Amino acid sequence: MMKYVKWIVAFVFAISLIPVVMITAVEIAVYADYGYFEKEYIKYDVNAEGSIVDMEMDELMEVTKEMMSYLRGNRKDLVVYAIIDGEETEFFNDIEKFHMNDVRNLFVAALYIRRICLFFMLSTASVLFMLNAGVLKTLSKMVIWVMGIFDITFVTLIGLISLNFNRAFTIFHEILFTNDMWLLDPDTDRLINIVPEGFFVDTAIRIAVIYFLINFIIFSIAFLILCGKIKWIKRKNTLTQDGGTYEQG
């Protein structure tokens, strides 16, 4: 019976690890380096002269930083002014603000889910420790199996998405949003101009690369543990009893 409990607890740990890694990969991809946004803006010439985003790159980057701060919940609104075509103008219109509020709710919820999953990971690891169930090896075996199966599924999904990214993008939005405010007009909405389809393709690839790099680190550690290269170090306490000593592991 204890054997089944051990593996069920380890399974909960491994399942909880997946959203932690995925959400962290997204966070690193879009928050670790704002220079990525600038490179993408230059690549797609989003602030071309005569466009509705005709503005200096430095000004556009300030707007980007405020937008990303808003998505994390660090800014209460998306009222951001910028010099566009020589005039100070509010960058985002009402439709864009509505949609970005939906995106913000999703991202903040994802961060909350990650905290819950981290709690489950800590709790399950603690339970295994108390059960004296060989914490590191038990978790390593389960992580390799669970994440391995998920990664195969994930790679298959990536392959399907690559066949028709635009269709996948539409389905993704229809699943996540209960309204059609995400259907922006490039003639009137600046947001869709600074993050065109190409930007989303590049960012999806960036997220996938980071995700699999983190996976590689996790799998490497797990294999090292199973090979005995990394071991749980037990602290030995020396106790005195009737004038003698003995060690307790």
List keywords for this structure.
mainly alpha, two-stranded antiparallel ribbon, disordered C terminus, two-stranded antiparallel sheet, 8 helices, 249 residues, 4 strands
Coarse morphology: elongated
- Alpha-beta classification: mainly alpha
Helix content: 55-70%
Number of separate domains: 1
Succession of helices and strands: HHHEEHHHHHEE
The strand order across the widest sheet is: 1-2
What's the tally of helices? Answer: 8
For the CA atoms, what is the radius of gyration? 24 Å
Strand segment tally: 4
How much beta, percentage-wise?
5-15%
| Distance linking N and C termini | 25 Å
Largest sheet: 2 strands, antiparallel
Task: Explain how this protein is built.
The protein is mainly alpha-helical. The chain has one domain. 67% of the residues lie in helices and 7% in strands. It has helices spanning 2-31, 35-43, 57-71, 94-130, 135-163, 165-176, 190-194, 197-226; strands spanning 81-84, 87-90, 237-241, 244-248. The strands form 2 sheets. The chain has a two-stranded antiparallel ribbon with strand order 1-2. The longest helix is centred in the middle third of the chain and has 37 residues, at 94-130. It is elongated and about 70 Å long. The two termini are 25 Å apart.
Blueprint of the fold:
Layout: H1 2-31, H2 35-43, H3 57-71, E1 81-84, E2 87-90, H4 94-130, H5 135-163, H6 165-176, H7 190-194, H8 197-226, E3 237-241, E4 244-248
Antiparallel strand pairs: 1-2, 3-4
Helix pairs in contact: 1-4, 1-5, 1-8, 5-6, 5-8
Structure summary:
By secondary structure, the protein is mainly alpha-helical. Helices cover 67% and strands 7% of the residues.
